[in-house]
Amino acid sequence: MELLFPLLILALLVPMFLGIRRQKKEMAKTAELQDSLSVGDRVMTTAGLYGTVAGLGDATVDLEIAPGVVSTWSRMVIRELVTDDAEDTDDIDTDADDDADTPADGATATLEETPEQTQRRLDKE
Prior knowledge:
Region (Disordered): 84-125
Organism: Rhodococcus gannanensis
Subcellular location: Cell membrane
Family: Belongs to the YajC family.
Distance between the termini: 57 Å
Strand content: 15-25%
Shape: flat
CATH topology of the domain at 37-85: SH3 type barrels
Helix content: 25-40%
Keywords: Cell membrane, Membrane, Protein transport, Translocation, Transmembrane, Transmembrane helix, Transport
């Protein structure tokens, strides 16, 4: 019975210590990422906004979020660097009947939904 209290305290402190250690490692990795930013990097903010680094200040980052649109953000909001492989922002379902919309000569075209396709996609959800 005398060992129960110290074992209980130990059982509570060990997971807390491990959690704090993991959190410190992640914070160090994020701080290193924010310090290593350079102009031209594609990044994602904590709000989920994708942009290209257009300028750097001591505590701020200028992000180009659209052609010609630059906004200033704190460096602390940069969450991760985005690579071309990981950037799949298309949520449009491609069905077999959508193949009729693609050009036959193999040229790439912009994918736009017709109102009927949009309605079909929304009905599925």
